[in-house]
Amino acid sequence: MGATHSTNDNKSPTISESHKSARNVFEYIAEIINKEVKKNAEKHDKSLQGDYKRAQFHQPLLRAAEYVWTPPSNPCYFNFKFDTNAPNDRSKDRHPCHMRDRNRFSYEGEAECRISRITGNKGGCGACAPYRRIQLCDYNLEHINDSNINSTDDLLGNLLVMAKSEGDSIVKSHENTGY
């Protein structure tokens, strides 16, 4: 009776702690801090959200013309020639892969399509992981600073331009491969 277990199974010992034990005091403090942090995070939740439709791009040609470019209503139509903050005057120099190695994918090994390795693959069909990407095309992100990013909307717009370019380059690198 008392502190012994009713079976012979290995169980953790029964511990009787006071509410003033070091562990309980630390847990109490952690709970207070956790509640306070959550409350403060909720106050700033909206300030971290962006709307790409309100993004403003400040590339040189638009600045010279004192024109604020309105982004397309669908982010799939973003065009790095206009929708960027990269400072280059020539549009080809505003490409997200500018000054990057054009051979961005490693073809060592194979694309991964095995059922056991890709979650969601069933019956020999489904998703495949492409060849490994060596580097990202993020040239436009290198030019994000407080003079051309004025809001979370602007930041989101620039991230979407880079993401679209990345997606396009993956599709082009793997077209007609069957994956």
State the main characteristics.
flat; 3 helices; 179 residues; 0% strand; mainly alpha
Structure description:
It is a single chain. This protein has 179 residues and is mainly alpha-helical. It has one domain (50-179). The chain has three helices and no strands. The chain has helices at residues 22-44, 60-64, 152-173. The chain is flat and about 70 Å long. The termini are far apart. The relative contact order is 0.14. The model has no long low-confidence stretch (mean pLDDT 72). Residues 126-176 form the Duffy-antigen binding domain. InterPro entries: Duffy-ag-bd_sf, Duffy-antigen-binding, PfEMP1_NTS. Residues 21-56 form the Plasmodium falciparum erythrocyte membrane protein-1 N-terminal segment domain. One of its GO terms (cellular component) is membrane. GO terms for molecular function: host cell surface receptor binding.
